[in-house]
Amino acid sequence: MFKTRVPDSPPSAFHQDAPSALGKDNLLSVFDSLVTPATIVGTLWVLAFQRDGELLPQYLMLAVIIFALTFPGKSRLTSSLSSLFFDVLFNWSWIAGLLVICAITTGYAHDFSRGVFEKWVWLAPTLEIAASLALRASAPYLVKLQGPRQRAIVVGMNAQGMVLAKRLDASPLHRIEFVGFVDSRNPERLPSNTKLKPIGKIDELALVVRNLDINIIYLSLPMASQPRILHILDELKDTTASIYFVPDMFVTDLIQGQAGNVCGMPVISVCETPFHAFNGVLKRASDIFFSLSILALIFPLMFVIALAVRLTSSGPIIFKQRRYGLDGQKILVYKFRSMTVTEDGGVVPQAKKNDARVTRLGAFLRRTSLDELPQFINVLQGRMSIVGPRPHAVAHNELYRKLIKGYMVRHKVKPGITGWAQVNGFRGETDTLEKMQGRIDYDLDYLRNWSLALDIQIILRTVKIVAKDSKAY
Questions:
Q1: What are phi and psi of 200, to 5 degrees?
Q2: Which residues of the chain have pLDDT under 70?
Q3: Per the domain annotation, does 4 fall within a domain?
Q4: 130, 139, 160: which is closest to 19 by C-alpha?
Q5: Strands, DSSP E only, in 113-203?
């Protein structure tokens, strides 16, 4: 009935905004890492010198602290303008806030000029944004100043090798020119979804490197081919090319992949939650803070909605439905009842446009997402987060976990009231497998790239979208 779609690469805005792989030898990467610390520290020094005619010791010490907090700066060369503005303002807010708290609690606030700080607090982010935009404009020229690009080949025309080649071709700011693949397989055994053909065989690799002046070699071979890899490395000792491995294990699509060790043995996590240690505390603290703040603001509205639900149709005010939560454990999720039924069985049809089960009040509540407000109580209970993958009915989970590869990985974190998928066009009915696949792709992307700044960005975008969205029925 359905076919599972496996995308070549995640379709999310995360990857559209992700920085190019510039490389440590790229002059552009040096400037990119210095934009944030240089503009913040430079602005402070100019303002302090303008006021006192010299740089006093307290400003020099403050500069050291700021540099330690901000270096290396986050790359924003390929991010959207809205992401750039948001990221600069968010990062500056917590840095300035932290400095103010430390200055007051330690009693050193009187050592600094209030006038200097007031100018610095708005001038520093303004100049950082300007510097980031200027670096963007000059980026192509900085790349050209460093001379010819380095020529690279990929050994192994497999899935991860083709993804790497595609990314090299799509990244204009690095100094690497993709020349082609080297593979010894017959044409009928090569991937059929590309017109590219190998420029040589693996047995001729050293000759290809010398004849084509190759500077970089990416070995994208199965890890089981260890003897073959050792032979290749031995042959390449007669060249000056740099050699990198692209392990085939990374085609697994890592979720929070990072190196570690177990009982002294090195391991690499393939699929893990982003909420370990401090990140877990930060996520829970932000959930409690935001949910308490929001509940305090919306309590009168929730009372009015509860009264309206009671007066306009028969049935309970709060609809409780079983959903899958953290680690796939079943939880009860609260919503204002928006239908004439309270279905929670083995088969739960999704709400559709003009669904006869939806009440007149319920249609308004669902369109504006006001029916979701009781879920802030679920957040306080610890069952949900404000931001995370949206919880699906148990019946829907059991269906889609069989049809979509990696579907259950979204349960490595608590479900959310809103999520990255919802603010990227996957809010409301998922009446096709492709729509559900798209939602899952964004959910997994959220797990790979979580940050508190991203959570706040999603919350703000949700408020904007709910006001004009018509996809929820």
A1: 180, 170
A2: 1-26, 192-193, 223-226, 248-253, 260-268, 270, 341-356, 428-429, 469-473
A3: no
A4: 139
A5: 150-155, 176-182
Q: Which helix (H) or strand (E) holds 169?
A: helix 159-170
Q: Which helix (DSSP H) or strand (DSSP E) does residue 229 occupy?
A: helix 226-235
Beta bridge partners of 322: 332
Structural domains counted in the chain: 3
Whether residues 79 and 123 fall in one domain: yes
Other CB atoms within a 10 A radius of the CB of residue 469 amount to 17
Tokens matching residue 135:
């670096």
Cross-strand partners of 336? 318
Alpha carbon of 160 to those of 201, 237, 250: distances in Å?
Answer: 18, 25, 7
| Domain boundaries, position 166 | 150-252
Dihedral angle over CA of 129, 132, 134, 137, nearest 10: -130
- The pLDDT, as a whole number, for residue 224 is 61
Structure tokens at 68: 């330690």
What pLDDT was estimated at residue 284?
A: 93
Those residues whose C-beta lies under 8 Å from the C-beta of residue 319, and which sit 6 or more positions away, are 334, 335, 336, 337, 338, 339, 342
| The predicted structure's pLDDT at residue 232 | 83
Token couple for 376: 């802030």
CA distance 155 to 191: 14
Q: What is the pLDDT of residue 13?
A: 41
**Could you give the CA distance from residue 296 to residue 277 in angstroms, rounded to a whole number?**
29
Q: Does residue 473 contact residue 366 with C-beta atoms inside 8 Å?
A: yes
Residues 6+ apart with CB under 8 A from 398: none
Segments of 146-201 assigned E as strands: 150-155, 176-182
Residue 81 corresponds to which tokens in the numbers above? 């303008």
Task: Report how far residue 54's alpha carbon sits from residue 215's, in angstroms, rounded to the nearest whole number.
Answer: 49
Nearest to 119 by CA among 194, 183, 68, 46: 46
Tokens of 452: 């508190």
Contacts with 174 (C-beta within 8 Å, 6 or more apart), sequence order = 20, 21, 22, 23, 26, 143, 168
Query: Do residues 356 and 212 share a domain?
Result: no
List residues bridging with 331 in a β-sheet: 323
Which residues contact residue 238 at a Cβ distance below 8 angstroms, ignoring those fewer than 6 apart?
206, 210
Final residue in a domain of this structure, among 145, 160, 177 = 145
3-state helix, strand, coil in the chain (%, to 5): 55, 10, 35
